[in-house]
Design a protein that fits this description.
The structure is a single chain. The protein is mostly beta strands and 119 residues long. Helix content is 0%, strand content 56%. A hairpin with a 2-residue loop joins β9 and β10 (105-109).
């Protein structure tokens, strides 16, 4: 049974950094494509970043380009989101996802980790 578990969220001041982790248990071979999404209070969930294959195939939502970096760990079942120069508008619950269905569709989702950026 696939389970995605995020960690690394927390409270940080604007301009600070956080590194989110996503561990995929139950599927040691990993997923070819994985992604990060976020949902702010009162807003719909939105795409943040996606990685396919190795770290060369990455895609970002425009507002996080140059500040966030998606990557995989040495173990195939781990994924990271390095977030630098954080802004208050980055405040949201961040979710990792695996098993790409195309577009913003993923089959498996984590439970989310809260990121709060204070001004």
């Amino acid at each position: 049974q696939v389970q995605l578990v995020e960690s690394g969220g927390g409270l940080v001041q604007a301009g600070g950094s956080l590194r989110l982790s996503c561990v995929n248990s139950g599927r040691t071979s990993g997923f070819y494509t994985m992604g990060w999404f976020r949902q702010a209070p009162g807003k719909e969930r939105e795409f943040v970043a996606r990685i396919s294959g190795d770290d060369a195939n990455t895609y970002y939502e425009d507002s996080v380009k140059g500040r966030f970096t998606i990557s995989r760990g040495n173990a195939k079942n781990t994924m990271y989101l390095q977030m630098n120069s954080l802004k208050p508008e980055d405040t949201a619950i961040y979710y990792c996802a695996g098993g790409w269905l195309g577009g913003s569709g993923f089959r498996y989702w984590g439970q989310g980790t809260q990121v709060t950026v204070s001004s």
